[in-house]
Design goal:
about 650 residues; Leucine-rich repeat, LRR (right-handed beta-alpha superhelix); 18-stranded parallel beta sheet; globular
Length: about 650
């Protein structure tokens, strides 16, 4: 261990998610000025030292030992009573919390505590029964309580929470084993609760009546439960109380819900509705109304057929609409016409890929805010009209694997300066541009397989200097490949590990590593950093829902993982996320094999010390996981601090050190 005890002025010490072995050092208690102490490391074990109670100025404390023997709280956690300034406290995978509740009594007395996480600590119904005789009353400052990844089964946990808290804002009970009806009496909690996460439990639709009268509830997460009823009855039960006026986000994804979409306008404040990966089917009735506040609607990966009601076009706040992975089988111009009410001004993302939609491409220019348009893997056919245009704000256009015909000219791409993903592959399209045309865009992804680009080599590609993926195979080119193309190509490459996978600049791509501690983890991280791209890491034990959140935030374009984890990513690929998956072992279908390479083939990329190199995320033990931007400078400095003697790569100055004499 490093001699932290000498740094008596230290206020922030972060050892989160390292592979430190042995016990938590007791000399940390000598750092009397500490205010922030994240100590969640993989191999920490043994008892939490009571000397931590000397840190009376501590505001944030995160303790956990994910692997190995785990860490324990002994002596009833008496040392906790001294931490009167503590506002954020997290315990992850503490092995003996279920045996006694004395430690919880100590925590309940902390006057400033606002966020408490007890994640993966094997807390059960037995613990609730054990602690019931005592009167636990947390301070009114406690607003966030995370009890996820425990083993609660009985809904009496709700009553217990309402008895010990009075001003709770957020409650996370995801990934337990909860089931059954609970009393609708939540005490004073129902006057304050905003966010309730019950995903990955065993609830059924009839249990929803328990939550209908929480009049302050904004977000309700119920994905991956045991709902098998039809959607109209589920929404009817949920809308019987005042929650229909307050609810802003409802997640019912990854259940077994049947029926079709019914009128949801009764939820007058709803902004987000997730119904993807259920068993919804049939045609959506023409009279279905959406709330005027709705911004994000996902009903992908179901069995809907027919088209989209005209009423959807009246959703004037709709930003994202995902109906991919269904059986829609009407003409695309009809669908676009039905969305052409006021929604055409607000819609930014439209996902209709993997359906059976027919017809050709209509004019999209009236959708003035549209940024993402996915129409791939349908049955689109017919000739593209010479006068249609796409929105000027469009960033991603994907129509691959259809039967479209006709000619696309520079007119179709007028003023599309923001386009960076273009996939027209596996159609019967010809791209015919004027000889000296300079595209307004700079593409990151160019997929034009089976399009007619010839017979001359497409000169407009000379203007593209940011792409990291190009496919112009089967493009009817009968020409000598120009020297400028070969000269430009190395600029798009890194090492062989990274060549097929990543773009050459951090602004273009993030790579997510879903790997255990392994050589491939190191190779991936180094390859990404050499390219000037950004690596974000995650825990292999994460659930699909947890991965989805990190993919959303990090905007990762590549995931490097083991084949055993690929199933967690399938739904995300079918929905909003545009990324590729590479596995370090035998790749499953639609995955890339982890390539081997030679470092000598890496092209030099100009990288600033202030460029972002990594985006690690917190463990999510207090509310949602948060990303932390790390630059090349910060990583090198961190390593340099651990090297004895003079170090030319040290970015510290004398004024950066708390005590220059130390």
């Amino acid at each position: 261990m490093l001699p932290f005890g000498n740094l008596y002025k230290l206020q922030h010490l972060d050892l989160w998610h390292n592979f430190l072995e042995a016990n938590i050092p007791s000399f940390l208690g000598n750092l009397s000025q500490l205010q922030h102490l994240p100590l969640s490391c993989y191999y920490f074990e043994g008892n939490i030292p009571s000397q931590l109670g000397n840190l009376t100025k501590l505001e944030q404390l995160y303790l956990g030992g994910y692997l190995g023997g785990g860490i324990k709280i002994e002596d009833g956690g008496q040392w906790l009573s001294n931490l009167l300034s503590l506002t954020h406290f997290s315990l992850v995978s503490i092995s003996n919390l279920d045996r006694s509740y004395s430690w919880l009594k100590m925590i309940a007395k902390l006057p400033e505590l606002s966020e408490l996480s007890l994640v993966g600590c094997s807390l059960s119904d037995h613990f609730i029964l054990l602690s019931k005789p005592s009167k636990l009353n947390f301070s009114t400052s406690l607003s966030v309580l995370d009890l996820s990844q425990n083993t609660f089964t009985s809904p009496m946990v709700f009553q217990w929470v309402s008895n010990i808290t009075s001003n709770l804002f957020e409650l996370d009970l995801s990934a337990n084993h909860l089931e059954g009806f609970t009393s609708s009496d939540f005490g004073t909690v129902k006057n304050s609760l905003r966010h309730l996460d019950l995903s990955s439990n065993n609830f059924k639709a009839k249990d929803l009546k328990s939550f209908t009268n929480i009049c302050t509830l904004h977000s309700l997460y119920l994905s991956s439960n045991k709902f098998t009823e039809d959607l109209p009855s589920i929404l009817s039960n949920l809308s019987r109380g005042c929650v229909r006026h307050s609810l802003q986000k409802l997640d019912l994804s990854s259940n077994h819900i049947t029926g079709t979409l019914s009128d949801i306008s009764v939820f007058s404040s709803l902004k987000t509705l997730f119904l993807q990966t259920n068993r919804l089917s049939g045609r959506i009735p023409e009279g279905v109304k959406l709330p005027s506040t709705l911004e994000d609607l996902s009903i992908s990966e179901n069995f809907f057929k027919g088209g989209i009601p005209k009423s959807f076009g009246n959703a004037c706040a709709l930003h994202s609409f995902d109906m991919s992975g269904n059986n829609l089988n009407v003409e695309l111009p009809t669908i676009i016409s039905h969305l052409s009410g006021c929604a055409r001004y607000s819609l930014q993302e439209l996902y209709l890929h993997m359906n059976k939609i027919i017809g050709t491409l209509p004019d999209f220019s009236t959708f003035t805010s549209l940024k993402v348009l996915y129409l791939s893997e349908n049955k689109l056919n017919g000739e593209i009209h010479k006068d249609i245009q796409f929105p000027h704000q469009l960033e991603e256009l994907d129509v691959h694997s259809n039967s479209l015909k006709g000619v696309l000219s520079d007119y179709h791409f007028t003023n599309m300066s923001k386009l960076h993903v273009l996939d027209l592959s596996d159609n019967s399209l010809a791209l015919t541009f004027t000889q000296n045309w300079v595209p307004p865009f700079r593409l990151f992804t160019i997929k034009l397989r089976s399009c007619n680009l010839g017979p001359a080599f497409p000169k407009w590609l000379q203007t593209q200097n940011k792409y990291f993926y190009i496919d112009i195979s089967k493009a009817a080119i009968s020409d000598i490949v120009p020297k400028w193309f070969w000269a430009k190509l190395p600029l798009q490459q890194g090492s062989k590990i990274a060549n097929p996978l990543l773009p050459p600049r951090a602004s273009l791509c993030n790579s997510l590593s879903l790997l255990p501690n392994s050589p491939e983890f190191v190779f991936t991280f180094m390859a990404v950093s050499m390219l000037g791209a950004v690596a974000t890491t995650t825990n292999p034990s994460y659930t699909a829902a947890e991965l989805a959140k990190q993919l959303d935030v990090s905007n990762a374009k590549l995931v490097v993982t083991l084949s055993t984890h690929v199933h967690k990513l399938n739904n995300q690929q079918a929905q909003h996320h545009f990324f590729k998956v590479a596995t370090v072992d035998d790749p499953p279908e639609n995955c890339w094999a982890f390539p081997e390479g030679d470092e000598s083939e890496v092209s030099e990329v100009e990288i600033s010390v202030e460029d972002t190199v990594a985006l690690p995320f917190s463990s999510g033990t207090t509310r949602l996981a948060k990303g932390v931007i790390l630059t090349h400078k910060s990583l090198v400095t961190s390593v340099a601090q651990q090297i004895e003697g003079e170090n030319p790569h040290m970015y510290l100055k004398e004024e950066d050190v708390a005590d220059p004499e130390v």
